[in-house]
Write a structure and sequence with these properties.
This protein has 172 residues and is an alpha+beta fold. The chain has a domain of 107 residues: 2-Layer Sandwich (Heat Shock Protein 90), CATH 3.30.565.10. It has a 6-stranded antiparallel β-sheet with strand order 1-2-3-4-6-5, with helices on both faces. Helix 2 packs antiparallel against helix 3 and helix 3 packs antiparallel against helix 4. The longest helix is centred in the middle third of the chain and has 21 residues. The radius of gyration is 16 Å and the shape is globular. The two termini are 21 Å apart. InterPro entries: Anti-sigma-factor_SerPK (IPR050267), HATPase_C_sf (IPR036890), HATPase_dom (IPR003594). Pfam families: HATPase_c_2.
């Protein structure tokens, strides 16, 4: 991914830590160099995961990418958004995507400096049925991202971090 594309998807400065209504607007951009990018800000609430999945699927298909690429991008965005919602509830987060060359970059920014950890999912069977409001033990997210992405990582950004993944952008 070129520095030009990287700079384009980094987005606005979130140092203030306040939600700005302009963060909630969907932006689809195209630069003179040709890459396309999307940025969408949210407040970190559980329902943004579903919204993010719909946005990613729609945009990837509008860019003419294959169904399999769309499915992988949706799953990656879902995992990254879920992690951001858990790490920074009720705080601003941002979903960003960029298409350049043969790569589709999906990333999520949040204000937590803590990097996501790969954990071991609890596969044991409970002896009793868990309560309806029992927390999901999790542990699969970053493993799913690693298995679907060509490359992935985390970078410090704007008093927080961006967790990103690059997929091969297969065309229809």
């Amino acid at each position: 991914m070129t520095e030009e594309v990287h700079g384009m998807i980094v987005g606005r400065d979130h140092r203030k830590g306040e939600f700005d209504i302009s963060d909630s607007l969907l932006r689809v951009e195209r630069t003179a160099a040709g890459p396309r990018a999307l940025r969408r800000g949210f407040l970190a609430l559980p329902d943004v995961v579903q919204q993010g999945r719909l946005i990613v699927e729609s945009q990837v298909l509008q860019w003419g990418l294959a169904e399999e690429t769309a499915e992988d991008a949706v799953l990656i965005a879902s995992e990254l958004l879920t992690n951001a919602v858990r790490a920074t509830p009720h705080q601003p987060i941002a979903l960003r995507m960029a298409l350049a060359g043969d790569g589709l970059r999906v990333e999520v920014w949040d204000s937590s400096p803590e990097r996501p950890r790969v954990s071991t999912p609890d596969l044991s069977m409970p002896e009793e049925a868990p309560a309806d409001d029992a927390p999901d033990p999790g542990g699969w997210g970053m493993r799913i991202v690693a298995s679907l992405a060509r490359e992935h990582g985390v970078r410090t950004e704007f008093e927080g971090k961006s967790v990103w993944a690059v997929l091969k952008a297969e065309r229809r």
